[in-house]
Predict the 3D structure of the following.
Amino acid sequence: MRPQTAARDDNSADLPFIVFRNDVLDYASDPALARFPIAIGAHSWADMHDILFEAFPGFPAKAPVSADQNLVISCALDPRRKLTVEWIPNGASLSFIGLTDEPNRSEKQQELDNLRQINTHVPYPIWKTDQAGEIVWQNAAYNAIGARHPHAPMPLFDTTPMSAAKTTIRAKVGDKDVQEVEWYEVTRTPLPEGTLYSATSLDPLIRAEDAQREFVQTLAKTFAHLSVGLAVFNRDRQLALFNPALIDLSGLSVSFLSPRPTIDSFFDAMRENRRMPEPKNYKTWRQRIADLIDDAENGRFEETWTLETGQTYSVKGRPHPDGAIAFLLEDISAEISLARNFRAELELGQNLVDTFEDALAVFSQSGMLTFSNKAFDTMWKFDAGTSFADVTIHDAIQLWKEQSEANPLWQDIHDAVMTLGERETWTMPVCIKGQTPMQCKIVPIASGATVIRFSQQQRLAQVKSPILKRNSG
């Protein structure tokens, strides 16, 4: 039963009513308990002050101590709503006038204001259509797009491609001038009385796609002039980019490469065109392709393929950003042929001088031994193949000194090899210990190199070092 007060004439049992005694909540009607976050015996006057002060700014911080302090306070949101504060012995009562559990007009107005603010400030276009498809409402962002494109047809967004299963489409808004077109992703939400649409700008994404497309086109134009074949496979292992040289080197047609074949299909087709070394069996082939892809992903793939046609390919695989792989194919048949011919000429020259009975050694301008024949190696018990370090003229002279009689002209040989200026041919006698004397001929040749020739067939003549002659002069 609710306490009675002398000052209250309660005509509405559905209005909130609260009683405080000794600063503690002593009673609260059911409407009061339903409306306010309070509990009997658990809250004080100060708690109630915190709850009511915003709506009733005149609510006192302390309970009245006499009838002289009774108050009637108007609601800040709706002046028609009142709060009566009445003194009672050892406490006070609170009576609400015009406050029921149903939302009042001010609350509805506040909700409406919130919706209007959202309508004004949300940057995404939103609009609603009735069941006939006619626009019955749109927000400020939608109107702003219409203001930017005054000549665009209405409605701004063409949603006809949408179906029951397709609730999202990409649509553009703008005039015929492509520079003024804006792209959006439109989403549809069915409602009982119509349809709600919202759109998100795709302009940053479209610009990124255009930039990527232009970049790929630029790369394609650049790679078009390369003689090296290029094949770039994306993270899904589909061909994403190739240049004209790849068509020639792989033997694959544009009609095959343009639909973006997978990496397995690409190498299968190359094998069928005999542009890859033929595997022993298909199982080995599949494993080879898997190893090839793994090595390319790690940047380790680099091979030389010798084809049945006699061509030689240099093939390299390199990882690219975003999980892509690039393969480079280069026809190195000419270089291989040149290298083979060069090696053959070197072997022919080596075999030729190995037939000479005279011992020959060639030293470069920097004094390094670059060539010697078999007679030289035999005469001086020298094996250049077992030496890890370069042999210099100083090393060679030490070898000669150890195996021959004393000779004051060894330093002249050193000076002749290391001289950068104009030089001349000269001879000196050399005698290996326990053997007959022989002739050593020092001959300057092209590129600052020097040939030193030891001959036992020529009769020794009276020789004198030109270097000693110059020094004595």
